[in-house]
Amino acid sequence: MGLQFSSDEIGTKMNLANIEQLIDKQIDTNYRTNIFEHELASIDSKLITGLKKSFLSEESKKIILEYCTAYFMQKLIKYDQYISFTDDDVVALRNVYKETLEEIIHRKRLSKKTIENNHFLRIKAFLLRTNPFLKEISKDGIKTFANEEYSASFQMEILGLDKHHIVGPILDIGCGQNFNLVKHLKELEVEVYGLDRYASKQDNILKANFLSFDYGVNKWQFILSNMAFSNHFNRHLAFNDEKVEKYATVYFKILNSLKVGGKFIYAPSIIEIEKLLDKKKFSIINEEIGYGLFRTIIEKLTN
Ligand SMILES: C[S@@+](CC[C@H](N)C(=O)[O-])C[C@H]1O[C@@H](n2cnc3c(N)ncnc32)[C@H](O)[C@@H]1O
After folding, report:
1. In principle, which of 97, 102, 143, 149 could form an S-S bond with 68, CB 3.0–4.6 Å?
2. What pTM, to 2 d.p., does this model score?
3. Given the DSSP bridges, would you call strands 192-196 and 282-290 parallel, antiparallel or unpaired?
């Protein structure tokens, strides 16, 4: 969505019609700045001056805050797929931007330097609170963990799916921005839904955090997840961090949402948690898929 301002807000003082590009430029400029290592991050002077001189309605401020929050999160997730945010984190980030916007607009005596320092201290505190592992991995400089997406045929192969034996309803957890597998399965005329943190105009693509999604009970014939839920779960297990418990709880909710006879198929395997499953309730198969990786096929045998 583009930002739109009424002409009296744009006014003669500063043309705010391009504020969206200024925010993009602002976030893009600092994209590779490691704020954990005392690197100086900056705010575009044009953006500060423009906002200072403009009269913005509450509605316009809201639009700006929504835009900054969404764009910043989108960039962070692209930079490192392991970064994650809860719904409360989204509200907290919006508040960080709100404070900065208020400082720019109402505290006219604050210098650019002070506004920048305050803003990046708040951003840093926000990131450390929500994704503490970032401090560790950025010690040796910026590393990115790009969010790869795979073709439908490659995902069918990795998950060992046979198009003649797959029936709906199906849920693909972490289906990706392009939801390739969901598109492919839809063409086979099965009832299929994708779940990801990216918004989509397609009715069958659900935008949600897979850690807070309501999976339901006895609902799905197949639940699929390629390089998404289990990949993240494994990473938290490796760090043995505070998210492990949450992932484990959601893992059991996912299994509970299968119909009897339904299957949860994912790659890579999560050996540590699979060991804990009740063998009377679930059958578990691990199959090697190459690259030293395994896929897991869990069938729910009984309720
Ligand atoms: C490596 S991509 C794989 C995408 C797709 N399954 C494929 O194989 O092409 C991982 C996906 O998981 C999604 N994801 C990661 N954490 C998520 C979360 N907490 N809630 C929803 N989706 C998430 C990402 O947005 C991304 O699209």
Report:
1. 97
2. 0.70
3. unpaired
51 backbone dihedrals φ, ψ, rounded to 5°: -70, -40
Considering only CA atoms, which of 32, 55, 60, 70 is closest in space to residue 199? 70
- In the reported structure, the alpha carbon of residue 175 is separated from the centroid of ligand 1 by a whole-number distance in angstroms of 6
114-126 pLDDT, tens digit per residue, is: 898 889 889 988 9
Determine whether the shortest distance from the Cβ of 131 to ligand 1 is under 6 A: no
Residues of CATH 3.40.50.150 domain(s) within the chain? 152-300
Question: For residue 176, how far is its CA from the centre of ligand 1 (angstroms)?
Answer: 5
Which superfamily does CATH assign the domain made up of 152-300 to?
Answer: Vaccinia Virus protein VP39 (3.40.50.150)
The 8-class DSSP code of residue 80 comes to B
Mean pLDDT over residues 162-187, rounded? 95
Kindly report, residue by residue over 241-286, the tens digit of the pLDDT: 888 999 999 999 999 999 999 999 999 999 999 999 999 999 999 9
143: left (phi over 0), alpha (psi -120 to 50) or beta: beta
Cβ(209) – ligand 1 distance below 6 Å: yes
* SS3 category, 68: helix
Only one residue has tokens 């208020």, namely: 102
Question: Does ligand 1 lie within 6 Å of residue 230's CB atom?
Answer: no
Burial class (CB in 10 A: 0-12, 13-18, 19+), 52: middle
